[in-house]
Structure formats: C-alpha cells, structure tokens
Amino acid sequence: MKDLTRGSIVSHILAMAPPIVVGMITIMVCQLVDLYFVFGLGEAAVAGVAAAGNAGFLVNALMQVLGVGAVALIAHAVGRKDRGDANLVFNQSVTLAVLFGLLTMIAGLVLSRPYMRAIAADEATIEAGTTYLLWFTPALALQFASQVMASALRATGIVRPSMLVQALSVVINIALAPVLILGWGTGHALGVAGAGLASSIGVFVGVLMLLAYFLKLERYVGFQPAQWRPQLRQWKRILNVGLPAGGEFVMIFIFMAVVYYVLRDFGPAAQAGFGIGTRLIGLIQMPALAVALAAGPIAGQNFGAGDGARVRETFVKAALMATVVMIAFTLLAQLAPGLLLAGFSNDPETTAVASQFLRLISLNMVAQGFIFTCSSMFQGLGNTKPVLWSSAVRVFTYALPAIWLSTWPGFRIEQVWYLSIVATTLQAAMSLWLLRREFGKRLGRLRPKDVPAPPASEPTAPPIREPA
C-alpha cells in the first residue's frame, strides 16, 4: 500500500500515470492490431468488428460501476487507515464481478445479432459483427474480475502489477491474432471469429496472472471467502458511487450508436473510417486519461484523510498536466493525420473519412482533458452523479440534432463532427461548474486528521465523514 496523503502530488501522478498509460495503450494497440489483420478480410469485416466493438461500451459501463465504486471506497478507507473496510469492499466487489460476468455471457449470446441488425449498414457487416461479438463475449465477461483486482490495487496507490499483467495479456492477444484470424502457421483461418477468440484467450490468461499476484504477493487487500456472501448494504455503497459512473459509459454508448446510425447511409467505408478514427483518437488521448486516473486515488485517499486543500491541489495539478498533454497531441493530429492512419486502410473513401475525423475531433482534446480530470475528481470525492449529468448534456445536445440533420437533403459527414465539438465543449464547461460546486459542498469543512482541533471556545462544524 502506498500512502498518497503525504509527499508531492505531482510526483505521485508522475509515478502512477506511466504504468496506467502503458496498460491502456497496450489494450488499445490490441484493438488496432485486430483491425489491422481483419482489414485483409474486406471493408465489411472491418466495419463489423468496429461496430461490434461499440458494444464494449455497455460492458465497460458495468465495469465502471465496479471499478469506480471499489476505487473510491477503498481509497477512502486507506485514507482513514481502515484496512478492514477496504477488504470488505474488495471482497463484495468480487462477488458482484462474478454476477456481472454471468449476465454479460448470457446477454452476449442472446443479443449479439439483434444489436448488429440495429446499427449495421448491410448483411455482410451484420454477419461479421455478430460472429466477432460471440467469440469476444468471454473476454468481456472475464474483464470484470480483472477490473476489480486492478481497481483495488490502484486505490492503494499500486499500479505497476496490473500494468504488467495487461501488457502480457495484450502480447498474447497480438501473437494469436494473425494465427487465428489469417491462419498463419496453421492453415486454418478463423476470420473475425479468430479476432474475438484471441482477445478472449488473452484476457483469460491476464485474469489468472492477477489472481496469482493477489494470492502470493498482495498484503493490504486480499481474498477472504467469508466475506463473499452477498451483503446488500455493501452493494448499495458500491453502487451508489459506481452506478452514475457506469451511466456515463451508457451515455458514450448512446453517443457512438447515434454516430453509427447517422453514418450508415454513407455505407461500410464511412463506418469503417469512423471506427479506425475513434480508436486512434482514443489512443492518443490515453496519456491525459492516465493523468486523470492517477489523480482519482490521490483525491480519494486525501478526502478520506480529511485534507480538502490537498484534494483541490490534486485537481489543479492534474488539470494542468492533462492540458499540456492534450495540446501536444492536438498538434500531432492536425499536422500529421496521414502518419497516424498509415497501414490501417488503403481504401480512399475509408481513409478520407478517418482523416477528416481526426482533424476535426482533435479540436476537442483540451476540453476532453478537463472532462477526464473532473470525472476522476468526482470519483475521488465519492459522488459520481455530476458525471452522469454532464454526460447526459453531451448526448442530448448531440444526438437529437444529429438525427434531425441526417434527414435533410445534402447532409454531410463533417456536420456530425462539428456537432460533436460543440457537445463536448458544453460538457467540459458543465463538468467544471459542477466540480466547483461539489468542492464547495464537500471540502469546506474538512480538516486533516493530523491538525489539532480548535479550542473548545471556538465552535466549529463537525467534519464531513463518508458513511460506514
């Protein structure tokens, strides 16, 4: 366990962010590698895998419920020096991970084809996306277990083990992709099914490695079967923090689904270009997101310790660092979009859509950095409802106008990206306003535990405490 209530905040962020970003980039690279090898199967296969991948946002929503709830409550317990509560939250999160994993398996088997029929442009894309989803569903179900274990470590200030496990898992996935997708060395090509199977095998191995780490090396939180029996009071604590954060991912899913819906009349090439562009944007945003994710446990531990000033300082430092990173990558996307797209498609129409997407959506990056940082601070404070409200503003200011414009004669793809810029800017402004209000409500009466209480003659309000 690492005590984040003392020492330089910038140093803590710089120590935690690189392992976080390496782990996230390896996952994103894995998705891009899948697209790279699937590209040889045709544009319909690329569009199908890209569109099917959007279903991962729904599963990510459930994973956020567990991950955010676990990080916030365990970090608060660490700040209070309450190891017992940290372990109870972790083990109840494990029980929820098993439940959510089973629900994901059932939903994947039943809903894959109806989902693809709702968003895909043609029958070939529907078939490719459905096949990929059926083989990818085990990976989605297993990720709940890895999410809970990685979140518990991050809440205690430890990020390197989960990063190494993610990297090794992705290396396995990348090594298996050409073998299973194209039949390298075996002569048995599984196509898009191989892409999903490679991911599922990689995630399975990763879960086994994290499990081994917890059983052999982790000392602060650990598996205690006696605490696996469902405790509804603890589930409520986790869900109160996690559900709004999961709702944010549902909003992202709706946002992405609307984009695919309005693009489907432009054909598979447009959807494929958007899918490639989205993954590249996600990749180059990872460093700023890692800074924000590192700030969350720091804010959480200091909130648990009662140090409001240090929580505010965490936001300021993280926001500045994220802004610098986002400006640098905005310039890269503006000056060299072709360099980023090299190797992912030689179809002129697909490349044109992806290049235009990168140039325009990259203008959102600084605003997106503030959104990332604010979301992480809300998680650290243990109140993620404002994140859901700001995400809802983005969806409604984008989705309805986009669908309306798509019915007009002369509707153009770039109008979709302009709307996204406006909606994201509004979300960033609302997030900052909501965070300022939350700071005023929750930090005003906090006092660090090691600061002596004022004399009895000077009345003071009691410090705000997280509920047990």
Topology:
Layout: H1 9-38, H2 43-53, H3 56-79, H4 83-119, H5 123-155, H6 160-182, H7 192-216, H8 232-263, H9 268-284, H10 286-304, H11 308-335, H12 337-341, H13 348-361, H14 365-381, H15 385-406, H16 413-442
Commentary on this structure:
This protein is mostly helical and 468 residues long. 78% of the residues lie in helices and 0% in strands. The protein has 16 helices and no strands.
What are the main properties of this structure?
468 residues; mainly alpha; 16 helices; globular; disordered C terminus
In short:
By secondary structure, the protein is an all-alpha fold. It has one domain.
| Percent in strands | under 5%
Structural class: mainly alpha
Largest beta-sheet characterization? none
Percent range of helical residues? over 70%
Unreliable residue stretches:
450-468
Straight-line distance between termini: 21 Å
The average pLDDT score comes to 83
What's the SSE pattern?
HHHHHHHHHHHHHHHH
Number of continuous helical runs: 16
Task: Supply Rg.
Answer: 22 Å
Overall shape: it is: globular
- Write down how many β-strands occur, each being a DSSP E stretch of 2 or more residues: 0
Count structural domains: 1
